[in-house]
Design a protein that fits this description.
The chain is an all-alpha fold. The chain has two domains: 51 residues, Arc Repressor Mutant, subunit A; 141 residues, Tetracycline Repressor, domain 2 (Orthogonal Bundle), CATH 1.10.357. The protein has ten helices and no strands. α5 crosses α6, α6 crosses α7 and α7 crosses α8. The longest helix is centred in the middle third of the chain and has 26 residues. The radius of gyration is 22 Å and the shape is elongated.
Length: 217
């Protein structure tokens, strides 16, 4: 008769899986703090563990290396930002201007609520080759959200799927650079003007169908 596999016993009344989840959360918080204040090169295993108050055994219990933690920190922030976008879209009226304004305002609020997010956007994505590669994946995800919102808000999407995808990619990548430049302080415009411009630019993409019908000569 075989015995059942032993289960890790609770320690201090807390089950093992909960303790591990808490340690992982502590490492993510430490990674965010270091990435958002000192930069990705400061995210050594030693510094992360010191910030989290854990030894390296618990680091490797959750992440194979520093790069895995770096991506996990960024992916967590992107997931939160995506939730902000979708929540703002759901709560806004089903009108293009109102919904676009709500989403753009929510994105800027998200980035400014925690200064570490703006630093990651402006300094760490351009500096880290690993984050540069992840940026391309994030842009595709955001472009897909743009296309889904266009389908939902507009009574008729005049662009074919191919051109709607191109529009989403172009708009998302362009706005990423625009926001990055603004957060760096390299644009002499206030927040209100940035929001109004972003909304106007986004809405203008719905008028691309007619020009695209003209063939090049």
């Amino acid at each position: 008769m075989t015995s059942e596999p032993s289960r890790a016993r609770p320690y201090g009344g807390v089950p093992a899986d909960q303790r591990r989840a808490r340690r992982r959360a502590a490492l993510l918080r430490a990674g965010l703090e270091l990435l958002g204040t000192q930069g990705w090169q400061a995210m050594t295993v030693r510094k992360v563990c010191a910030e989290a108050g854990l030894n390296d055994r618990y680091f490797y219990e959750n992440f194979p290396d520093r790069d895995a933690l770096l991506l996990a920190v960024v992916d967590e922030q992107i997931a939160q930002g995506t939730d902000v976008i979708l929540s703002a879209a759901r709560q806004a009226p089903r009108r293009p201007h109102a919904r676009t304004l709500a989403v753009v305002t929510a994105v800027l609020d998200f980035l400014t609520t925690d200064p570490r997010r703006a630093r990651i956007l402006t300094h760490e994505f351009p500096a880290s080759p690993l984050l540069q590669r992840r940026r391309l994946e994030i842009i595709r995800t955001l472009a897909a959200i743009f296309a889904a919102q266009a389908d939902e808000v507009l009574d008729e999407v005049s662009l074919p799927d191919r051109d709607l995808e191109l529009t989403g990619l172009t708009l998302t990548a362009g706005l990423w650079e625009l926001f990055t430049t603004w957060f760096r302080g390299d644009l002499d415009i206030d927040r209100d003007h940035l929001i109004r411009y972003t909304v106007a630019l986004t809405l203008s993409t719905t008028d691309l169908a007619a020009p695209l019908r003209h063939r090049l000569h």
